[in-house]
Amino acid sequence: MTQDTSNLQNPFIVGERLYLRPLEPAQDNHLYSTWMNDEEIRRYFSVYPTSDTRGRERLDNLYKDTRHILFGVALKEDNRLVGLVGLKDINVLNQTAEFYVIIGDRNLHGKGFGTEATRLMLRYGFLELNLNRIQTQDMEENIGGWRADEKAGFKYEGTLREMILRFGKYHSVRVYSLLRSEYLETL
User: Fold this and answer.
1) DSSP, res 128
2) CA–CA distance, 86 with 88 (Å, rounded to integer)
3) b/e for 108-141, b at 16 or more Cβ within 10 A?
4) What average pLDDT does the segment 18-29 reach?
5) Contacts 24+ apart (CB under 8 A), 114-117
6) Which terminus in the chain has less CB density within 10 A, N or C?
7) Residue 161 lies in a domain
8) Residue 137 lies in a domain
């Protein structure tokens, strides 16, 4: 059954409540820089200040990088951009990539949007890019992040001890992965 997507802005992958779309650097860079400067989000994703100009440059550079695929996460109900999802370090020889998701609108945390965006990106990675392994890493303190990964089917592999320095303290990182064969079993 085909969904009516005529009211959505450049939909690429459509889910139940969300859709993934290409980012428009000129349009979306302000939200990107706002999210990257938010203390709660910065804790897990970036320690560098981001201006609108720098945000646009960053988004432009990510789109030029053939080893990186980035989408905006938008709500179907109002087309509001609420986050980012991507695959980075794509290795075509080994068919692997590293996954990440950021739900930048903190009012939507804990409501399953991260899990839905994750599932949409996994579908894209395994069924369209033909990846064999997708991994993700979450700081141990990012309980919502690793719980969303587990709900989406990722398997815990282990912990990298004191891997990331943030705000004057070393943090351990949980590593998760999902294999294509495991993903296909869930369909």
Assistant:
1) I
2) 6
3) beeeebbbbbbbbbbebbbeeeebebbbbbbbbe
4) 88
5) 114/83, 114/144, 114/145, 114/148, 115/148, 115/151, 115/152, 116/15, 116/16, 116/17, 116/18, 117/15, 117/18, 117/20, 117/73, 117/83, 117/85
6) N
7) no
8) no
The tokens describing 184, both together, are: 């296909």
- Token representation of residue 20: 């993934």
Contact status, residue 177 vs residue 133, Cβ threshold 8 Å: yes
CATH code, domain carrying 95? 3.40.630.30
Name the residue range of residue 18's domain: 13-131
29: in domain: yes
**Could you tell me the CA-to-CA distances from 22 to 73, 127, 141 in Å, in that order?**
9, 19, 30
Rg of the chain's alpha carbons, rounded to an integer?
16
Query: What would the pLDDT profile of 80-116 be if each residue is shown by its tens digit?
Result: 999 999 999 999 999 999 999 999 988 998 899 999 9
